[in-house]
Amino acid sequence: MEDGGITQDPPSEFAVKDCALLAIATGRRVYTLSELRSGLESVGDASIYHHFWGGLLQPRFVEREYNNDFAAWIQHSLRDAKLAERVAMLDPREYPDLSELRLDLLEIIDERLDEADYLHWMPAAQPFQFMRSQIVVFSTDKRVSTPEALLAILPTLPASSLFYHFIDARRRVPEAGDDFSAWLSDFGELGHRLRARLARVDPYFVTLRALRDQIASIFAEELAGNHAA
Predict the structure, then answer these.
(1) Which parts of 77-184 fold into alpha helices (H)?
(2) Cys staple from 176: which of 40, 75, 93, 181, with CB 3.0 to 4.6 Å?
(3) Is 89 exposed, middle or buried (0-12, 13-18, 19+ CB in 10 A)?
(4) Under 8 Å CB-to-CB from 112, ≥6 apart: which residues?
(5) CA-to-CA distance for 139 and 147, rounded, in angstroms?
(6) What is the tens place of the pLDDT at every residue in 98-119?
(7) 3-class secondary structure, 177
């Protein structure tokens, strides 16, 4: 279309992709809280990422008690509910990069070690095995050119696709936050409203199915309001 004599390109298509998150053993296992702390200082960011986010793609029949693997191990193998609760409160979405998340995790562990000397040496019932994630991305035949078309296919998107576009995207498009928001920048006021609401969605403490329903509701509400106007 034209605006003041300047030809503007139409919004680009959104190409839906899918992914698999591969868990790879690092070969490092620890038996005490002190050893866990030492491991956290030296493992790569891919390991921190896996133990905070990887569980979202793991099949499960009941809700997880803890959203990250560190808190789960501290509770079930070290039997330290106090520390487990503190670690479970960490939300990786609040950190611009994994190095800051790592530092806060180390600080929480240090505080607990200062409170309870026995945790320096007390062995866990089961060792903690550091893993790392590698993401494999797949193309799909799904492409949409409008927010309405994206809303129409949202209910059919697999959890892994939602993970790629809304969670893993933070490592690729940090300024936009997710792939949907990056694409919506071409849709004027409607896109602005959708981006603002998507930015407030925290995917960490919900299942991917609940996240999909939340995103679909946002699109449905904003599109309904846009048509009414």
Answers:
(1) 81-88, 98-115, 147-153, 159-162, 179-184
(2) 181
(3) exposed
(4) 33, 80, 82, 83, 86, 119
(5) 20
(6) 999 999 999 999 999 999 999 9
(7) coil
Per residue in 134-191, pLDDT (tens digit) is 999 999 999 999 999 999 999 999 999 999 999 999 888 777 689 999 999 999 999 9
Total Cβ atoms within 10 A of residue 218? 19
Please report, as a single letter, which amino acid is at residue 92. P
How far, in Å, CA of 107 to CA of 83, rounded? 12
How many other C-beta atoms are found inside a 10 Å radius of the C-beta of residue 224?
Answer: 10
List all residues 6 or more positions away from 212 whose beta carbon is below 8 Å from its beta carbon. Answer: 154, 155, 157, 159, 162
Q: Give residue 44's Cα distance to chain centre.
A: 17
- Whole-number Å distance between alpha carbons of 215 and 22: 26
pLDDT for 58 equals: 77
Q: Cα–Cα distance between 110 and 117 in angstroms, integer?
A: 11
Q: What is the pLDDT of residue 99?
A: 93
Residue ranges in the chain assigned as alpha helix (H): 33-42, 45-53, 69-76, 81-88, 98-115, 147-153, 159-162, 179-184, 188-199, 208-228
pTM of the model: 0.86
Q: Helix (H, G, I), strand (E, B), or coil: what is residue 137?
A: strand
Residue 55 has pLDDT above 50, yes or no: yes
